[in-house]
Amino acid sequence: MIVFNIVARVADDKNFFDSVLICVSKIKNNIGPIKLNIIGEIQSETIFNKLIAMALELNILENVLFTNKSIRYEDLDETYLSGYFLNFSVGNFVGYSPIEAISLGLKTIIINVDSDIYESGVTDISYCNNMEELYEFAVNVFQNEREVSKKVIEENLIRKNCFYLNEQESKTLLNYFKGI
User: Fold this and answer.
1) What is the pLDDT of residues 73-89, one digit of tens each?
2) Angstrom distance (rounded) from CA 96 to CA 115
3) Which end of the chain is more exposed for a tag (fewer CB within 10 A), N or C?
């Protein structure tokens, strides 16, 4: 079984849930068992009810869990930690959530959700240009989970090192701000 986790509020400004549910349905019907955990507060009952109705229609309600609240990292059990954490980008621009997930050592997959930007130029297995690539990622997991997981962890470590300044870069930046 593949486990996907999304840490996000269920809110009006989150427009990627529909696409993920469709992808989960496709994975379940064509590849194998899947679980989607949506970890976050329900801020919009309207969106939540829409997602429940969609999951019912797609016959994946038993595959989707809403925690209805955030869960601290320290309180996540192995069910969550062994899965892949899905984070979303606009092209190759990522927000803070994937950086934080990678920093915590979570197997993080970044997915472009901007339909106007199909190709980011990123070819890592841990970066999906669209939902079709997320589906292909799932195919790869079912074929060789150990190798895929190892590769995701390696790529996440490289990505993490790109997000943070090294000691020399930090000193240079601080000196710049000090006028040195």
Assistant:
1) 889 889 899 999 999 88
2) 21
3) C
